[in-house]
Write a structure and sequence with these properties.
about 350 residues; two-stranded antiparallel sheet; 12 helices; globular; Alkaline_pH_Ca-Antiporter; NaCa_Exmemb; transmembrane
Length: about 350
């Protein structure tokens, strides 16, 4: 019953916030580390229930269950941090950018490297992967690059009308992709060979798994909101550079953990297409669903929202997307393909630590 415990902890944290703040610094640090550890534990339990549901409904619906659940977590945490204390207008940008980089460089790199090491040359459905990459590219450029070239507002910002229009386009594009993935072009997103990954997880009542999944997600959201806000406050107090980038990367890493594990697990079981569906689908869902939600909150509350990336981040984004197109263009991948993606990911991490 870890999800239930997570829900109670998530509810108790805001109530005991003042008491935690008065603890000596070493004890407060230990308390924060314990909470983070419990968040990660809960994430793995939630993953178990999400995959149990996924194996009940089959692919690609199972992947959609997981990506939708994780996107709900990310959107909630972004909104919470954005509204916490001093308004943070860049947290949405940093979280979305971090998600795309972690997925297209880190998760894909690990999946191709580890899976390729075990299975050598691996094949995937070019039609499905190309569709995923096309959606990610369109959404990424519209949300993270285009704001730097508009004339109505300051650099990196959309006007309210532009923000509503772009958010609507993102949502419509993602809905169109989901319809294509689940109906007309479903075969393009299925592995040629069915694997045996997680067959034991399909046991148990699907209703119970669904209820515990929902409870666990709420608990993760509440705990992640507290941890992210605490991290932001601590970084600002220490006068650390790149506070927004670090918090955004932390949020993205935290919420992508279930999908990272699921994608790597699928790749290790020679289910490359399922691995790509999970990893790339999470990036699509983050931009297609989380950005419209954050934009709506920004419009209603009046909080500023800066989405445009700086020059260095723009180069990294376009490099990661360009390499992804080349990597999956032939329909086959190798260990070397994964190494290339991981090199880009290391460069991304380096520029967060040493801008």
């Amino acid at each position: 019953m870890v999800p239930v415990a997570a829900l109670f902890v998530g509810i108790a944290l805001p109530l005991g916030h003042d008491q935690l703040d008065h603890l000596p610094v070493p004890f407060e640090l230990v308390a924060s580390l314990v909470i983070i550890g419990f968040v990660f534990w809960t994430v793995f339990v939630v993953l178990h229930h999400a995959e149990a549901i996924a194996h009940r409904v089959g692919e690609p619906f199972g992947t959609l269950v997981l990506t939708t659940a994780v996107t709900a977590i990310e959107a909630s945490v972004i909104v919470s941090v954005m509204l916490h204390g001093t308004p943070n207008p860049t947290i949405a940008r940093e979280s979305v950018f971090s998600t795309v980089m972690i997925v297209c460089a880190g998760v894909i790199g690990l999946a191709l490297l580890l899976g390729g090491w075990r299975h050598h040359h691996r094949e995937h459905k070019r039609q499905g992967t190309s569709a995923l990459l096309a959606v990610i590219m369109a959404l990424s450029v519209l949300v993270l690059v285009l704001p730097n070239y508009t004339l109505r507002t300051g650099p990196g910002e959309f006007s309210p009308l532009q923000l509503m229009f772009i958010s609507g386009l993102c949502l419509l594009l993602y809905i169109g992709f989901v319809i294509g993935q689940t109906q007309r072009y479903r075969e393009d997103f299925l592995d040629a060979e069915a694997g045996s990954i997680g067959r034991h997880e399909a046991s148990g009542s699907p209703v119970r798994s669904f209820v515990l999944l929902g409870i666990g997600l709420v608990g993760i959201v509440l705990m992640a909101e507290y941890v992210a806000a605490t991290l932001e406050t601590a970084l600002e107090a220490a006068h650390v550079e790149q506070v927004g980038a670090i918090v955004g990367a932390f949020v993205a890493t935290l919420v992508l953990l279930p999908e990272t594990v699921a994608a790597i697990r699928a790749a290790m079981h020679n289910q490359l297409q399922r691995s790509l569906n999970i990893a790339l689908g999470s990036a699509c869902a983050t931009i297609g669903m989380a950005v419209p939600i954050v934009a709506l909150i920004s419009l209603f509350t009046g909080h500023p929202l800066i989405l445009g990336l700086g020059p260095g981040d723009t180069v990294l984004l376009l490099l990661a997307l360009g390499v992804s197109i080349v990597s999956f263009g032939s329909g086959r991948t190798t260990v070397l393909t994964g190494v290339v993606h991981l090199v880009i990911f290391v460069a991304y991490v380096l520029l967060i630590a040493v801008p």
